[in-house]
Amino acid sequence: MTANVRPYVEARAQKGLWAASRFLVLRRASQLFFLALFLSGPLLGVWIAKGTLASSMTLGTLPLTDPFVFLQSLAARHWPEGLSAIGAAIVLAAYLLFGGRTYCSWVCPINPATDLAAWLRRRLGITFTAKIRTDLRLYFVGAVLAASVLSGSIAWELINPVTALHRALVFGLWFGAGGTAAIFVFDLLVAKHGWCGHLCPVGAFYGQIGKVALLRVTADNRAACNDCMDCFAVCPEPHVISPALRGERSGATPVITAGDCTVCGACIDVCSKQVFHLGLRGRNAARPDPSMTAPSPAARVVSSQPAVLERDLP
Amino acid sequence: MSDSSSGIPRDPRRRKALQDMTRFGGGAAVAATMLTAFGVSSRARPAQTLRPPGALPEKDFLAACVRCGLCVRDCPYDTLRLADWADGPAVGTPFYVARNVPCEMCDTIPCVKACPTGALEHALTDIAKAKMGVAVITSRETCLNLQGLRCDVCYRVCPAIDKAITLEVSHNARTTKHAIFEPVVHAEYCTGCGKCEKSCVLTDSAIKVLPIEVAALKQDEHYKRGWEEKTKAGGALVDAPLKLPVRRPEGGTP
Questions:
Q1: N or C: which end of chain A has fewer CB within 10 A?
Q2: Contact flag B69-A155 (C-beta cutoff 8 Å)
Q3: What is the top-level taxon of the source organism (chain B) (predicted)?
């Protein structure tokens, strides 16, 4: 499959600029929003969320803790005292509802850097990529937990570039941003989606939650697919698309069930045929072939958008 | 060894899967080993970096601290900082350097209250019982009081004056007619706040707060202090020394 160098062109022409970049804009807004919650305190003196992504306290009442950090702490044989257990349970429950690796695409501060690397790769036509299996990161999750047990410390936090970048932004510890710079270069020159798609144990952990999470992307309109491959070109985890998109003959569900899917919505944006929508796990019904009733492209932009919002957003 | 030796044909996919498992498993084992070594070596932190009040011993602290920075945020004097890569302590963990900003020993101990994991023990409610470190006169050769001057600054600024630091008077053998007022730290009362280290008038502080595990060790259990045991038991625990007859040479007199 040859990836389209400019995959959004057709979608913009067919659906308009907003419908073809809606999820990208919303994701950037979400990433800025979560960062702003932490930055309003140090910058403006208005404290909303205190702490970091590892653990935080919002408005003095809502404790939130990264369940992966919490798990490592348990593996290191520390029995928590205080609010971290409740915080981890809240975060776990939230991602069970809202999609597991939604953390990666909607919250993680490194995502803009890896997105930029992927975009530059397409634009510059860099096709070289080191072959790394996507399940290597699962082995890393095991390695991190083993190291936590053996060293008696929260092992991944000793080097985690994700929280290091967040601390760089929120606490001004700028050395911590170095890891992100390295990841950017790695993603750009060494391996396509190298860090998030193959190595990061944090994302791999959230991917395990994603395997059972409720909010999913669904290719419910897969009958309209014209095999343009644009979704594969923009998807950070392209292997998750095929089972749902091409599952019509085998009767597989149109819902993208794989935990690796980050629910970033890039496929929804890029698809000029409106094959993808946000949906819920278990809603397996595919739409009938729309070719019989397909309205003109301009009319579809207007008519489909509210329908999508009402039906599919939780 | 050839496939014909067994009747079951080999599945090439099985071989591939086993190969992958071995390769990735091996890679993961290497990663785990390196991370473990790094985790263990992270327990060593520079002696001048101190943990917040109530911090667990370093090994347990690294298992408990999630690097959230809530203690740092709630420190009203900006004493606490989160460690960056170049600072020395495990990255993202809270610490302070007494010579820069010492601990002001807030009555309410907001840093401990903010900790969501118990890396700072919530059982600590009396800041006077904190053990962030212990002050030591690390440079007897430069301490002004030990040269026979009356500086006394470390003693004066100590929040537990006359308990954690006392001035012990002794004869100044050099001048033969003056006294030496030696500042002596009593680990039992010293919280390690670092006011003394901060205030030392010398370019390089002659008194430094060191981690408990370096400077305030526990006495081995098997060394009992006779005078303490005697008081506890209400009397001598061993028999009085035997009175042996004095044997002298034949016909000798003292």
A1: N
A2: no
A3: Bacteria
Q: How confident is the model at residue B5 (pLDDT cuts 50, 70, 90)?
A: low
Clarify whether residues B184 and B123 are in a common domain.
no
Confidence grade of residue B155 (pLDDT, cut at 50, 70, 90): very high
Which A positions 50-79 lie with beta carbon below 8 A of chain B? 50-52, 54-57, 63, 65-66, 69-70, 73, 76-79
Question: Which residue, among A186, A167, A202, A82, has the nearest Cα to B90 in the 3D structure?
Answer: A167
In chain A, domain spans: 8-22+214-312, 48-209
Query: What's the DSSP call for residue A255?
Result: B
Report CA-CA distances (Å) from B103 to B43, B47, B80, B128, B159: 22, 16, 8, 12, 11
Give the CA distances from residue B92 to residues B81, B88, B253, in Å, rounded to whole numbers and listed in that order. Answer: 9, 10, 80
**Cβ–Cβ of A158/B38 closer than 8 Å?**
yes
- pTM here is 0.84
d(CA B98, CA B87): 14
Under the banding of pLDDT at 50, 70 and 90, the label for residue B242 is: confident
Rounded to the nearest integer, the mean pLDDT of chain A is 87
A70-94: pLDDT as tens digits: 999 999 999 888 889 999 999 999 9
Residues of B in contact with A69 (CB under 8 A): 66-67
Please answer yes or no on whether B24 and A56 come within 8 Å at the CB atom.
no
Q: Is position B228 within any domain?
A: no
Number of domains in chain B: 2
Owning domain of residue B155? 133-216
Domain of residue B81, CATH code: 3.30.70
Residues of A in contact with B118 (CB under 8 A): 78-82
- What ipTM does this complex have? 0.83
The answer to whether residue A218 scores a pLDDT higher than 70 is yes
